[in-house]
């Protein structure tokens, strides 16, 4: 093992190098928790388009990418921004206006699809969705599937249980593996080699990372290797899976990062209000995304007082005083 591996690079360089027009990407986190927001905003600033996006259940990152016109195809279980927008507004509008192609799965199906990709198997069986119209309602046509070698020919397949009625099921649903070109996640701690430690819920991040050809990690804290080696049982992602490490404090803002800061309810409400109106949304993008050169300038625009207001309580891991309505 080479202990001198150094995968640290600026976020703008990592995005430019690994995220291309037409790339199949996945982003980590769940609704308004631990979205890789600094990377999302960088993708938007670099005007990378025609992305095929996979997510387990996402929210803020998903809605920003779709609102900026970066996504052409989406596979996901759910997209919501908490109380600010129980269903992501730009996501819903894009689907209703046929601006993106969209295919839906259950949360469990998406977890299994990433796990299949991580395991290196073509599919995994489940009973999830059996008997529902999720099996028969496709977002991608057969002709489009056949024309794109990165997309499986069928959304899902119901197959015979190879063990008869073992387990009480004669039929199972086969969910196809996902292997993104690049997965982007935000974690609390990483070292230069790419070993990562996630505090709190991991969602499907670990499976997304292991299923992907390239992985960009943004982190709150860039630590020395001995720090993570002291308690290796607390590290979920081995360095072998990671391609680039980018140190971006508050890189999940305005979503929450357990132990560091909560989601910013005020910011998300302003975002949701702007997302309902085209002119207001353009003004929002011009001010907070295109009007700054990077995430650091974005945070300066948000303001130190706002960041201090959502600081996590050391005991609970989230802000105990923030008004969430």
From TrEMBL:
The organism named in the record is Desulfotignum phosphitoxidans DSM 13687
Ion transport recorded as keyword? no
Q: Which Pfam families match?
A: CoA_trans
User: What Enzyme Commission number(s) appear in the record?
Assistant: 2.8.3.12
InterPro entries assigned: CoA_trans_fam_I (IPR004165), NagB/RpiA_transferase-like (IPR037171)
What keywords are annotated for this sequence in UniProt?
Transferase
GO: which molecular function terms?
glutaconate CoA-transferase activity
- Cross-referenced Gene3D superfamilies, in alphabetical order? 3.30.30.40, Glutaconate Coenzyme A-transferase (3.40.1080.10)
Name by which UniProt lists this protein: Glutaconate CoA-transferase subunit A
């Amino acid at each position: 093992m080479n202990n001198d591996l150094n995968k640290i690079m600026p976020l703008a360089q990592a995005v430019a190098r690994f995220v291309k027009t037409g790339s199949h990407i996945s982003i980590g986190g769940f609704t308004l928790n631990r979205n890789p927001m600094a990377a999302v905003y960088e993708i938007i600033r670099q005007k990378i388009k025609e992305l095929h996006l996979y997510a387990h259940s996402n929210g803020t990152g998903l809605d920003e990418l779709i609102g900026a016109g970066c996504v052409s195809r989406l596979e996901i279980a759910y997209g919501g921004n908490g109380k600010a927008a129980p269903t992501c507004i730009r996501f819903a509008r894009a689907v209703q206006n046929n601006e993106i192609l969209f295919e839906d799965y259950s949360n469990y199906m998406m977890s299994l699809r990433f796990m299949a990709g991580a395991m290196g198997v073509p599919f995994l069986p489940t009973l999830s969705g059996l008997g529902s119209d999720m099996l028969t309602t496709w977002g991608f046509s057969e002709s489009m599937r056949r024309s794109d070698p990165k997309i499986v020919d069928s959304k899902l397949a119901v197959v015979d249980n190879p063990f008869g009625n073992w387990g009480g099921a004669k039929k199972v649903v086969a969910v196809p593996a996902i292997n993104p070109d690049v997965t982007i996640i935000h974690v609390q701690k990483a070292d230069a080699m790419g070993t990562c430690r996630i505090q709190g819920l991991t969602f499907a991040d670990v499976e997304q990372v292991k299923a992907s050809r390239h992985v960009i990690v943004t982190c709150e804290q860039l630590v020395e290797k001995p720090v993570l080696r002291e308690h290796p049982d607390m590290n979920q992602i081995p360095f072998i899976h990671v391609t680039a490490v980018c140190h971006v404090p508050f890189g999940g803002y305005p979503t929450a990062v357990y132990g560091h800061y909560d989601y910013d309810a005020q910011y998300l409400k302003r975002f949701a209000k702007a997302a309902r109106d085209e002119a207001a949304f353009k003004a929002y993008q011009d001010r907070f995304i295109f009007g700054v050169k990077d995430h650091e300038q974005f945070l300066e625009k948000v303001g130190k007082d706002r960041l201090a207001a959502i600081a996590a309580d050391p005991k609970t891991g989230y802000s105990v005083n923030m008004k969430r309505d």
